[in-house]
Amino acid sequence: MCEKNVPETNSIPYYNRELSWMDFNARVLEEAFEKENPVMERVRFLSITASNLDEFFMVRVAGVMEQVSGNVTSPDPSGMTPAELYPALSEKIHQFTEKQYSCLHRSIVPALEKAGIAFLTPEQMNREQSDYISKYFSKVLFPVLTPLAVDRSRPFPVLANKSLNLAVRLEGKEEEEGCFAVVQVPAILSRCLELPASGGERRFVLLENVIMHFIEQLFEERKIFSVCPFRITRDSDLDIDEESDDLMSEIQKSIKKRKRGVPVRLEILQTCDPATKSFLTEMLDVDDESIYELTGPLDLTFLAKFANLSGCESMCFKPIMPVFPPADFWGCSDIFEAIRKKDRMVHHPYESFDIVVDFIRAAAEDENVLAIKQTLYRVSGHSPIVAALMRAAENGKQVTVLVELKARFDEENNILWAKKLESAGCHVIYGLAGLKTHCKISLVVRREEDGIRRYLHMGTGNYNDTTAKIYTDLGLFTCKEPYGMDASNLFNVLTGYSRPPEYNKFVVAPHGMRDFFEYMIRSEAENARKGLPSGITVKINSLVDQEIISLLYDASRAGVKIHLIVRGICCLIPGLPGISENIEVISIVGQLLEHSRIYRFENAGNPKIYFGSADWMPRNLDRRVELVFPVEDSDLKQRAFKILNLLLSDNINARRMLSDKTYVHIDRRGKASRNCQTEFSLLAHEAVKKLAAQDRDKPLRPLHSPHMDE
User: Which of 147-156, 397-406, 418-427, 654-663 has the lowest mean pLDDT?
Assistant: First the structure.
């Protein structure tokens, strides 16, 4: 389905999506500065900003640069042309990286040192530490390192995307001014090397500093003028021919091309000498705006592993421990029986994702289960869901799995799982041409006494047991027949040539979701004009779609109170007089990554609430298969309403977007501190404790011999 046409020039207030994304990453960086956060969590937040920025360069910045080089002159919805956006974006990123390193050196390093943890250079080490790195270099590093000379006969090497390297400027022969070599810092070894230390202190050195200290041993016949670490980031957006007869092979070829993509960023140290900088700039063909001169160390993503340093658990957030079983499944020994009795809701990670895994495992082993159908977008490296699906196929069940091979940066992992599933006897679909399948749904077909019954799990997040521990998501289990019919129809569309049907309950993109949301927003505006109860509360990851934003502005002008919880990109501008003064936007960034999508519409006093996989972006509404579904059980609806209300009451993790596009912390003056994530965890544990107490208080029932009742 083609993307809906929108005006080429801006007709509504609209914030550029790339600049808005940078604001999101800045909010994550604020958490690294936050002194109330444990120091290792601040380290982790800083690493997240670096990882986020890497992906942003590989996809979004690369796209803007390609538009500039392609002389694209049409403006985006914010009114900016690529030629106007690129320098503005570059300036914003340069300012951001300065803040990253200010955070590291002025805030985090002193806090680590206060906790007895420090990074040393070889020059700062005592004799024992110096001897330690000397032995490490000779026994471990030296055999691994490969110096690559660059001269007339040996061209500049093709360096891996995001790899850390050393540029070495050497003395040349008499007729040469000088020459260069490149040494890659081996990624297979730990970037942080712990040194001997005493008195409870912990000391570390970075691998590149060890290599630089002993680098003369690699170039014994040449004088070394300078050594400078550098790192390149490449354009990594895949260009896939989806009409290919072999989509898997086509994607595998594209993944190889990704490793050789055009450089879009060069990171070097500020101390890099001019000759080396000039050499790298020429070899990599990067412009000045793409060069980032940093105080170092380069590539702060290594801090993610460092944040998990053993023995430093007290310097981390208190873990949010999931409850199992969730309160909604308390006392249920048969998961299918539990779902038959009523719909069930789970809230991850406060309630364990194991309940979803158990659902698939139970289906795999149940002799009455005939078929399992499942979508997989991103799964973990050792996925218990995939293992259960393979087990089901081995047990003779008909297992159909749609594995989305085009899930960005998960392509290789998904190809691996697709092959394993096929080997186990599962029928595997590799997604649809032109569309990514992003919906999250499992369908279990079971034979029962009264006929065939379909059991469903639908969610807002991926079937990934690893991310389910740190992403907040919601899931619904049901066996209601209208939902089951819709699920069967959806899978028929995904696996065959069926035309999209008229669904009973489901809202599915790309054929009906845009129209649905537009209708719901217009209905709220009309209710407001009639004086009927109206209101919109939505929690999503990103708000980009121009048409949706325009309708929200119209609803605001009609008097609809709109509450938007948008974690990341928000192109809507709230609080503009006469346009969006009835719209409030908050972003929640905390210990967990807010990932659930919830949509509530007041509906003239009969509120409706939906969960789903879709953000309000053109790609979700027009270029992906997405699923949004209603929550109709009265108890579960009330619980979902309370979830939204608690999210809106957060004043620890939440920031409010102002009409000037800046974000500020929620004012806590005169209010009790409220952290929705810790409160959700507390509620989950309290609900289970209450049920456990009720079980303990039940009167004991003595067991009798059947003859005693005669």
Answer: 147-156
Tell me the C-alpha distance between 147 and 218, whole Å.
7
How far apart CA 398 and CA 130 sit, in angstroms, is 62
CATH of span 327-503: 3.30.870.10
Report how far residue 233's alpha carbon sits from residue 237's, in angstroms, rounded to the nearest whole number: 12
pLDDT of residue 246: 52
What was the pLDDT predicted at 696? 78
438 catalytic per annotation: yes
Angle between helices 82-102 and 17-33 (to 10 degrees): 0
- Positive or negative, the CA dihedral 515, 518, 520, 523 is negative
The pair of three-digit structure tokens given for residue 641, joined into one six-digit string: 């309403």
DSSP 614-630: --BSHHHHHSEEEEEEE
Catalytic residue among 438, 457, 563, 595: 438
Which CATH homologous superfamily contains domain 509-695?
Answer: Endonuclease Chain A (3.30.870.10)
Query: φ, ψ for residue 686 (rounded to 5)?
Result: -65, -40
Q: Band the pLDDT of 259: cuts 50, 70, 90.
A: low
The two structure tokens encoding residue 565: 């919880």
With contact defined as beta carbons under 8 Å apart, do 332 and 358 qualify?
no
Range 691-699 average pLDDT: 80
Mean pLDDT for the stretch of residues 324-351:
96
For 72-101, write each residue's pLDDT tens digit: 999 999 999 999 999 999 999 999 999 999
Q: How many whole angstroms separate alpha carbon 110 and alpha carbon 116?
A: 10
Q: Within a 10 A sphere around the Cβ of 90, how many other Cβ atoms? A: 20
The one-letter amino acid code at 426 reads: C
Listed in sequence order, the residues at least 6 apart from 263 whose beta carbon sits closer than 8 Å to its beta carbon are 232, 233, 234, 235, 284, 285, 286, 290
Q: What is the pLDDT of residues 444-475, one digit of tens each?
A: 999 999 999 999 999 999 999 999 999 999 99
Take residue 623 and report the two structure tokens written for it: 């270029």
Q: What is the distance, to the nearest Å, from the Cα of residue 426 to the centroid of all Cα atoms in its chain?
A: 28
Among the listed residues 278, 262, 272, the one whose alpha carbon sits nearest the alpha carbon of residue 57: 262
Q: Give me the count of residues in the chain.
A: 710
270 phi/psi in degrees, rounded to 5 = -60, -25
Say whether domain 1-112 belongs to CATH 1.25.40.10.
no
| Mean pLDDT of all residues in 440-445 | 98
Give the tokens for residue 413: 């992992």
Q: What was the pLDDT predicted at 221? A: 79
CATH class name, domain 116-286 = alpha beta
What is the distance between the alpha carbons of residues 339 and 64, in angstroms, rounded to a whole number?
Answer: 49
HSE of 701 in the Cβ direction (CA atoms, 13 Å)? 3
From 435, 616, 645, select the one nearest 541 (Cα to Cα): 616
Q: Mean pLDDT check: name the lowest of 220-224, 394-398, 647-651.
A: 220-224
| The domains spanning 1-112 and 116-286 adopt the same CATH topology | no
Alpha-carbon torsion, ordered 564, 566, 572, 577, to 10 deg: 40
The secondary element (H helix, E strand) that includes residue 475 is strand 471-478
